[in-house]
Each structure stands twice: as structure tokens, then as C-alpha cells.
UniProtKB/TrEMBL annotation:
It comes from Dethiosulfatarculus sandiegensis. It holds the Pfam family AzlD. Keywords: Membrane, Transmembrane, Transmembrane helix. It comes from the Bacteria. This is Branched-chain amino acid ABC transporter. The keyword Transmembrane applies. The chain crosses the membrane at residues 6-30, 42-61, 67-96. The keyword Membrane applies. InterPro entries: Brnchd-chn_aa_trnsp_AzlD.
Length: 102
């Protein structure tokens, strides 16, 4: 039978406490955030900026083909109003580039 050391249990407990605190804090403080103004607009834009910050390194790691795929994804999504179709186009461009070794 596995027996963890006290430091392991302390680390698990502290991680759980931190996670719960962040979630509970968000729920408790969410109603107190401004509903109008600059802060509200910044909070509304936050999910998009986080997504961009996560995807941008991968785009530039693929070089010109990654940039072409990202631009194509944005264009198809905008024109067709369909995120899934845009993603399929972007993935297809990168897959073709990798498999055909351009």
C-alpha cells in the first residue's frame, strides 16, 4: 500500500485550497464588477486576448504557412460565420504543409 509523506498531503491540500479560493472568489466578486465603462469592456475582451496569446506562438512556429493558415481561418470564419469551418481550413493548410514538406 502506498503511503504518502506529510509534505505531499500538504501540497495537495494547498493546491485544492488555492483552486477553491479562486473559484469561490470569482463567484463572490463577479457581481461587484462594474457593468459599464472601460473595466467592463476590458473584461469582455479578456477571453479573446487569452486565446490569442495561447495560439500566437504556434502560428509563428509554423512560419509563413502558419500565418497563412491563421489568416485563412479568420477569413473563412468571418465570411461563413462558422468557426468550425474556419478551423477545418486552418488545420488542413498546416496538415498539407507538413505532409507535402513545402
Amino acid at each position: 500500500m502506498y503511503s504518502a509523506e506529510p509534505q505531499t498531503w500538504l501540497a495537495i491540500f494547498m493546491a485544492a485550497l488555492a483552486t477553491y479560493s479562486l473559484r469561490a472568489g470569482g463567484l463572490l466578486l463577479g457581481g461587484k464588477l462594474p457593468q459599464k465603462g472601460r473595466v467592463s469592456k476590458a473584461l469582455e475582451a479578456l477571453p479573446g486576448t487569452i486565446l490569442i496569446s495561447l495560439v500566437t506562438p504556434s502560428i509563428f512556429a509554423e512560419g509563413p504557412w502558419g500565418i497563412a493558415a491563421a489568416c485563412s481561418t479568420a477569413l473563412v470564419t468571418y465570411k461563413m460565420n462558422n468557426v468550425f469551418a474556419g478551423m477545418v481550413v486552418g488545420v488542413a493548410i498546416v496538415a498539407l504543409q507538413r505532409n507535402l514538406a513545402f
